[in-house]
Amino acid sequence: MAGLDIKAINKSYGSAHVLSDINLAIDDGEFLVLVGPSGCGKSTLLRMIAGLDAPTSGDIRIGGKLVNALAPAERKIAMVFQSYALYPHMDVRKNMTFGLKFTGVKPAERERRVAEAARMLRLEPLLGRYPRDLSGGQRQRVAIGRAIVREPDVFLFDEPLSNLDAALRVSTRVEIARLHRLLGATMVYVTHDQIEAMTLADRIVVMNHGRIAQVGKPLELYYSPADLFVAGFIGSPAMNFFPAEVVGVEDGKARIAGGAIDALILPAGPLKPGARLTIGVRPEHLAPVAGGDFATAGVVELVERLGEASYAHVRRADDKMTVAEIRGRRTPAPGDPVTLSAPAEDIHVFDADDRRVSTRA
Amino acid sequence: MVRQRFQILGVHAILIAYCALALGPILLVVMNSFKARNAIFGAPLAPPTSATFSLVGYMKVFHASHIGTYFMNSLIVTVVSMALVLLFGAMAAWALTEYKFRGSTVVALFLSIGIMVPIRLGSVAILTMMREAGLNDTLTALILVYIAQGLPLSIFILSEFIQQIPRDLRDAARCDGVPETRIFFEVIAPLLRPAIATVAVFTIVPIWNDLWFPLILTSSDSTHTITLGVQQFLGQYITDWNSVLAALSMAILPVVAIYVIFSRQLISGLTAGAVK
Predict the structure, then answer these.
(1) A102·B182 Cβ contact <8 A
(2) Is the pTM here over 0.90, yes or no?
């Protein structure tokens, strides 16, 4: 078991910077999820931890030991790939034991580990089958089994659920969470799916353009996103944004106005008159009633019914769209005028540089 | 529907015509090898009948010549060359596609020149080299030349196939702690089987059929190959057609056998199930 320490990692291909100044400490036994849009560098970072790519500069330590110069096999890591990467000409048992042959694990010990992993992942009936005879979910379980038998200090997952269908994705996700509890190993998990990130992670690292945008516990990211990017990335449907301006500050209260905002008075905090802002409100915090601290009006254009809630897409005064989550059986109809409001504590404020502004005293 | 059927019919007509054109001479050779001398000249296009049937060509070939030795020589040269071309070709293709090292582009370029320039242009130099190395009139000389002849194309074809093997597979093996040589022999090579079969066929046929290099590099009966051996029945004034046709018919057999063996291997789809 071991933690990870990543110091000042940079990676560039020629003049293209893929990763810039990544610093990250991962605790022993932690489940850390790297999340971000495609091309944000999260997979590159994972491959560097695995030793499959070398950083242009910076240090990686696993369990306190500098591993920059070590081959993947010497780092005590195991990686699970999106494409499963099973050896097609070997059966499931051979797939799991193949690597162990070369790392000095005795045959009896190999058998014991395979038996244990197979029991954990319910692979016993499949041990004699070939990858081509397995379903996607079974293949991914074999790939996870192959990682387990290595008894690594750190598990690395590279979008392991992306090739599975929706139902399997949920059950395999639960399986991975269960495995983390069972093994207690450090796990680093890359995904572009924020639901996977939120449900699995002890901590989430949101990456954007090769930089870390924010590191935090799932609910921290949800309730206090550090910038506009994280605010828009975490949560589904995405947060609604309203351009706005501080029109006046009186008695510690800031009066804020914008094209689509009917009224908004917030604790001033550091806000100065004339400051340009972006106001963010999550769809689930908007209610179709008048009288909240924040209000915006518009015309319903489309209603998506999910059962437990409906999403109303509202065209507002500045001609942009706002999504509101409406609970209950009564939903507005397209064409209805509607006023959406939210209490002040659910309002997110971002400054002109897209950074979060804390307006609470 | 009807139009489609006519199209299929047309395609098949062309293919059948081409087949007949390609197989005709071979059929003629095999047919006539079973006929007496007069019948070969009297009615060259007729199949052997009970009156014209004769094994005299085969008898002569077996009794009056070293056909067994020739056959063995051809076999040794072809099999050894093929095995080494495949081994070195696959290893070089792997090295050139997987590892980027100083000069890898130059090596790749050099090899592609090898595909474009026929090796026969270097015959004189090869002959001098072999003589100075003391290798003239040996099978080793032939094998070396054929390896040089077969390598460039086989590296080219195998590189293409290796590039199609998913990257994740090699990465997974590396994470698993499999040494690089074992990754090549136990992960990559088994997946290359269809490609290796293709390359094997491409390599074998020109070697087996080659007349040029045995002609310039071998001089004694003990090192002649089958194609060169057949030449001794072709005289300046008299040609022993019975023997020529019989020897040629037998020379065809191994190539046919190789096609039969490897065509089953040519069926790909081995990578199905590896990814996705």
Answers:
(1) yes
(2) no
